[in-house]
Amino acid sequence: MAPVEATLTQVKLRSSEGTLRYPVMLNEQFDTFRAMIENADAAPTRSMLDVYSSLDSRLSAALTQWNGLLKTEVPALDDAARKENLPLIVVRTE
């Protein structure tokens, strides 16, 4: 799960100044993009649409990876936990 999380958010941040030391990840990139679109008085430019397409494809790849983990790794972890009489992991999908 950690690689997917690291794609979506900057996991190394420990302070608000941490963004000066580490690159921003998808969540911050989408937020910056949203702010640019909201503050514009015109339709999005071709460059803006290209940035959105890039962000969207990177998010789709991360979600595909996450869904793969939900189908394979989480059930395997639950099976191992059952064998050790440990609580199961519940992932809500709604």
Overview of the structural elements:
The chain has one domain. The chain is built from 4 helices and no strands. Helix 2 runs antiparallel to helix 3.
Keywords:
0% strand; 94 residues; 4 helices; mainly alpha
Tally of helical runs: 4
The percent range for helix content is 55-70%
N→C terminal distance: 19 Å
What's the total number of strands?
0
Structural class: mainly alpha
Low-pLDDT segments, ≥5 res: none
Could you give a short account of the major beta sheet?
none
Radius of gyration: 18 Å
Mean pLDDT: 90
Shape: elongated
Can you write the helix and strand succession as a string?
A: HHHH
Strand content: under 5%
- Oligomer state equals single chain
Integer count of domains = 1
Brief characterization of the structure:
This protein is mainly α. The chain has helices at 2-8, 26-39, 46-71, 73-83. The protein has one domain.
List the helices and strands and how they pair.
Blueprint: H1 2-8, H2 26-39, H3 46-71, H4 73-83
Helix pairs in contact: 2-3
